[in-house]
Structure formats: structure tokens, C-alpha cells
Amino acid sequence: MVNNNFDWYCQVFIDVSLDIDCLRNLIAEITNGKHDTYSLVENDCLKIHVRKNHDYDNKRKTDSFDGFLFYKFFLDIAPITTKIKFVNYVQQIKSLIKQLRDKGYSVVPACDYEDELNDENYISR
Fold it and tell me: Which of 64, 65, 66, 94 has the greatest CB tally within 10 Å of its CB?
């Protein structure tokens, strides 16, 4: 269950050539979620807001240190309910990231547990 002393929020930066509607539809497909007509995608575990990055900069995004901050889009991800397990939550975000990377997109998570999201061997907390 959600631990109120730990921040589950995760921001995921994505560099894709898609428009926001196509990205939202892709994320809904990957997560088996439903989307509204705007930016929200939800499934049984995740609430994902697909957002345009107003700091997007085609040149600065190539910086090897903090270029991801200038990617075209980012996702605001939070748990859909307080009754889910952290391990399930992380696994769904990891799966989303992996599938986006498998399609060739640059994806960088930024959250308190980002190392776990990038660790192929992570199973549970």
C-alpha cells in the first residue's frame, strides 16, 4: 500500500518525434490504459499525465549531463489509488520505460527511485 512517508511521484522525460496525441495513444496502448481527450491516461495502477515540455530545446537536449530536461515531452506519473503495492507500481513504470526505449525513444525517469527503474535486476523493494 502507498506509504505516506515516501514520494511515489515520478517524472519521465521522453524525446520522440510524435505529436502529443499520438504519444498519449501509444502510452495508453502500452499500459492497457484508457485516456481522456486531453492528456490523462489511467490504468488499474497508474495515473499518467502526458505533457509538452515548455523548456524543450532541440540543441540543449543533446547535452550528456542534463539534456533530458529539454526533451519534447514528460510524463507526470502517480499511483491511481492508495491500495496498490509499490512493487507493482514500479514494475508498470519499468515496463512502460522499457517498451518506449525498445521503440527507439530516449526515456529518462526522474524520481526518488529512478535507479530501481533503470536496474534490469530490480524485483522488489
Answer: 94
